[in-house]
Amino acid sequence: xxxxxxxxxxxxxxxxxxxxxxxxxxxxxxxxxxxxxxxxxxxxxxxxxxxxxxxxxxxxxxxxxxxxxxxxxxxxxxxxxxxxxxxxxxxxxxxxxxxxxxxxxxxxxxxxxxxxxxxxxxxxxxxxxxxxxxx
Length: 135
Hints:
The protein is mostly helical.
């Protein structure tokens, strides 16, 4: 899947935000994300329908909802929305990121999983900019 320039910017924002969330969750626990969600930081940093989608799924994770249920909720929301191929891929990225946080993936692994969706050419450089190589 080849992202448009606008979709690529959103994808980069998703990777950066989920990397940060993953660091917080690993350091302080999933409940620490409740404050981040309450402040609307995820919605504003990712933006638009993608931020709202991430907020919904992450809130379910913080509330202790089972991984398969969270994934099903995400897939159902995506299926009920009229999405372009790019939108669908971005929603899949978010579901992947939420799942990685919920299972406790290392932040570097999460960043690699999400960056793989984008086809970023300078993959290692992008991860280094995030600080993902520190893990």
